[in-house]
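thread: overnight batch results

M.L. [08:02]
morning all. the overnight job finished for the chain we discussed friday. pasting input first so we're all looking at the same thing
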Amino acid sequence: MYILFFVCLLGVIAAIPLHFMSIEHLRLQKKYGNEEGVKISEIYGRLSAYLLFFSLIGIWFSCQPKFTVPIFQNLSILIPVVNFSIPWIHLIISALFILPGVWLLSNSVRGLSRRVSETHRPEKVITAGIYAVVRHPQHLGWLSTHVGFSFLLSAWYSLLFTPLLVGLLYLISRKEEEELIREFGEEYEKYKKKTPMLIPGLRNNVTI
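M.L. [08:03]
and the structure it wrote out:
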């Protein structure tokens, strides 16, 4: 009954090693040559990006048990087109997460460019705009959007998946930074020391 959820969950997990391979630019260029290494890393990058994107959407919309926040349970809005009702409290909570999440995603893509966001091949260290607030705004945006859609759709398994998603995004962030330090050296080290990883405001913490 819940097979789509678990298939999409496996899709998210499968996207991680593809992502890891896509950001190993120096290793791929050394193994296959500069031109071929760039092409291979971009293929891995796009595969991992699209697999993660569609798998997360599948997790949100797949058939799964529903939950309700025990506040104003009887107040809900009905969407007659799809015969789907959303508790008002879920709608409010989801907006608090989805709107900032989409804003973070759009601004992080704008700061990097769509091509770099898809292929994971930055040409320089970006420190302006949203990247002056956190080092990985795109990952924070995905996490916020995920929580928002979990509440919007009252998707219980999706909400339970959140801690695992936090762990996966943290591992991705650490791996990305290892490669960025190899490529940009001291420039990225300085940026890392003054900008938190995922939680805005933690200026003195270089790992979170």
